[in-house]
Amino acid sequence: MEVQAGILQATHGSSVMELVQVTKIYSGVAVLEEISLKVKPGTATAVLGHNGSGKSTLLSVMAGLVQPTSGQLMRTMPGLSIGYAPEAFPAVRFTPEQYLRSMGRIRGMTPAAVEITMEKLLRDLDLKPFSNQPMPCFSKGMLQKVNLMQSLLTRPGLLLLDEPLSGLDAASMEACTELLLQLKQEGTAMMFSAHEPLLVEALADNVHLLQAGRTVEVMEAKAYLGLAASVSILCTGLTAEAHQQVQKLPGFIAMKPVVLQPGEKEMNLTFLGAVCDDTLRYLLGAGASIQSVQRHGSAGGTLVQQAERNMTGDGGR
Ligand SMILES: Nc1ncnc2c1ncn2[C@@H]1O[C@H](COP(=O)(O)OP(=O)(O)OP(=O)(O)O)[C@@H](O)[C@H]1O
Question: Where does the signal sequence lie (predicted)?
Fold first, then answer.
């Protein structure tokens, strides 16, 4: 095991990187506190949390650009190559081709390998028409594409992406997601931060939730998305007793009567999206007639806000 300024090189078959109780303190304030995690090959973890919760700091510590104040960061795969796309990418005075060629050279790629990979990335992310234009004239989305390309140039074993879809148009988001899915299937491990659900839904196996620099939850992405989504079920025909029972079912969030006309009443039930099928089965078994089912996804806030509302029973109202 080689020790290098707080970074250890070790051999662990089942992970590419491990963090043990990593803390980062800026001006006496802990912005990361005792973060422990393992990154496994071919898996994607979404780092989620409110603004200022420490997502960017965690990714830059993992990229080796920021030194932890305490704790250990272990590169557990020998010769691990890391690709890192920071949140803010500077508009350097190069064209994308000049910039990517020099990044490839710095990272030890052969000129031929750089050309092949660069051409593919320029086409995949639809930046070929601008590949010889100076980057200071680029839009936010165009710069973000170059940022992503430099991180993908060496086909890294670990990819660290800070809000990778930020600024991209719909087609580019889709192309980027496709590229990342393919890399994941080929074994690249990924950690990425995001505020929107698209990449979490398409790519993430796990969610690592941060709050004020601390880990508050690590769970499967599917379970987290189930929490973030809610479903409204409009139904009639439930007995007074069934109304009581419905409120005790798993995933119950809210129940609101909707008066159609005197003597006729519908119930608007809100449940976590994850339990929709079970709830419908229960309602039909209890003699209800289902009028409509509406899924709400993560509308009305970020993924984290929606999940928090639902966890505290304040969603869907
Ligand atoms: N170089 C620095 N010096 C001092 N404080 C810093 C530095 N970098 C980050 N911080 C502080 O660390 C905290 C976490 O910041 P960070 O950028 O990691 O959050 P984030 O979760 O990525 O936020 P966002 O969602 O807004 O991108 C913030 O309070 C921030 O002010």
Answer: none
What the block records as the tokens of 191 is 């950690």
What is Dmax (Cα atoms) for the chain?
Answer: 78
Q: What is the pLDDT of residue 11?
A: 44
> Phi and psi dihedrals of 185, rounded to 5?
-60, -30
Best residue for ligand 1 mutational test, from 23, 24, 56 (most atoms within 8 Å of Cβ): 56
Q: Is the CB of 15 under 6 A from ligand 1?
A: no
> How is the chain split into domains, by residue range?
17-225, 229-310
Q: Check: CB of residue 211 under 8 Å from CB of residue 53.
A: yes
Domain range 17-225, its CATH number among 3.20.20.140, 3.40.50.300, 3.40.50.10490, 1.25.40.10 = 3.40.50.300
User: What is the ipTM, given to two decimal places?
Assistant: 0.98
- Give the pLDDT means over successive 10-residue stretches in the chain (317 positions): 39 81 97 97 94 96 97 92 92 93 95 96 96 94 96 95 94 93 96 89 94 92 80 89 88 82 80 85 93 70 66 49
- pTM beyond 0.80, yes or no: no
The alpha carbon of 301 and the centre of ligand 1 are apart by a number of angstroms equal to 21
Please give the helix or strand (H or E) that residue 190 lies within, else none: strand 189-193
